[in-house]
Amino acid sequence: MFKNILVLFIVISSLVFGVPQSILASEEQQTLNQKIDQLLLTDSSILGGIVGVSIRDSATGKILYEHNGSTRLRPASNLKLITAASALSVLGKDHTFDTEMLMDGTINQGILKGNLYFKGKGDPTLLTSDLEQMVADLKEKELTEIQGNLIGDDSWFDEVRLSVDLPWSDETTYYGAQISAINLSPNDDYDAGTVIVEVKPSLKAGEPPTVSIKPSSSYLKLENRASTGKDDVENTLEVSRKHGENTIMIEGVIPKNGVRVKEWISVWEPSHYVIHHLNELLKAQGIILKGNILLGETPENASLLLSHSSMTLSELLIPFLKFSNNGHGEVLIKEMARVQKGEGSWEKGIEVVKEQIKKWGIDPSKVVLRDGSGISHVNLVSANDLTSLLHGIQNELWYDDFLQALPLAGTSDRLLAGTLLHRMNTVQHEAVVRAKTGTLTSVSSLSGYVHIDEERQYVFSIILNNLVDEDKGKQLEDRFIEILVNQS
After folding, report:
1. Is 324 a catalytic residue?
2. Active-site residue, from 58, 77, 382, 388
3. What pLDDT shows up at residue 96?
4. Which of 159, 207, 362, 421 could link 202 by a cystine bridge, Cβ 3.0 to 4.6 Å?
5. How many beta carbons lie within 10 A of that of residue 112, not counting itself?
6. How far is CA 44 from CA 34, 38, 67, 71, 101, in A?
7. In the prediction, which pLDDT does 50 show?
8. Poorest-confidence range of 147-161, 256-270, 393-407?
9. pLDDT tens digits for 174-190?
10. 77 noted as active-site residue
11. Of the listed 80, 322, 334, 474, which one is catalytic?
12. Active site residue 240
């Protein structure tokens, strides 16, 4: 009886005074939860898979919705969120990577009586133009001859080139490039440790296509076994690299009227490649090397000739997060290890990351971290862990730099959208969505921030594992965002 009277009172009061905001909020939340539940129950693409979802209030960190929120799953490139936050915390947003040229002798009348050392400290943004400028600076010192050796010093990091779980099939790809303290990137997306191979069909069928490699270097060998086919022939062109070598192979057929093909291929032992490329640039400027090209450590008494500094970490985060650059993640892991532990290794870098994530509410004993990029299928993180991180870092001084580096939905500008280009285009005028994508075979993930208005701001994470088709997982993620944005 009393309960019925109370319900009647609430109904009458709502008609006279309006429904209390707390009740409205509760009803909206129930509707949101029901819509997400319905999505997860009815989408056939995740049948037989595992789904982890976590939504928190951006201001309070309170979990508003979760589905397997504490279940550890393979995060794919969503792991880069942890790497980026840890790097900002440990290294600082103004951190740069230096590359140095030193000598252990003297320059007299343009002749260096001693060795020239090229010491790399992990810069993943170093370009051929930067090397050319360093060579030009040497030329200004009137250097014409090096009587000793040209020695590349990559000792800033350890000698382990590939992360522990990298699949053998990814070893020649741009996203599986080897990690070294001496790197070179082919363009301003900064895919360190790779070259761009461009193949154009010949004007005549039966002739081999034209092949160019950027940056060009005689250290790389080319085997062009491909041919140009007739206009109607199927394109079977393949670009690859021989395992354990720097031999680029071009095979198959490219149609005469076909478009040019571009492939990013990783190099074998990037330190050797860069030093040989540097020697070619020295020779082009009339600086002759009399000795050999070697790898070794710079002696403590060596004199600094010149140095080059990279962009700041806050700037590097843009290609790292927006374009999901795996190499940058692994370099940051080793750099954190070098700075904090004195050893540029994956093992020590992961130790540093685990120490950092405690302050953002993640228990390091309940996650499995194997690298800095998320390429490992052994990495395990829960959706609740990722939303805890995204909520916790909002109080950090570098948070704005982190936020601006995330891909932005609803824009056609590649430099803003990153990996969200052509996704969620309908949300541009309704909400601001900044989120990190993730993709592995059978895995798709999306974690970030949704800003609808001043009262509705969320952090979210959705991780999909054991998918038959990860592309369909991305379609589900987009529908998830639409539900979150259009909840009222």
Report:
1. yes
2. 77
3. 98
4. 207
5. 24
6. 18, 12, 17, 21, 58
7. 97
8. 256-270
9. 999 999 999 999 999 99
10. yes
11. 80
12. no
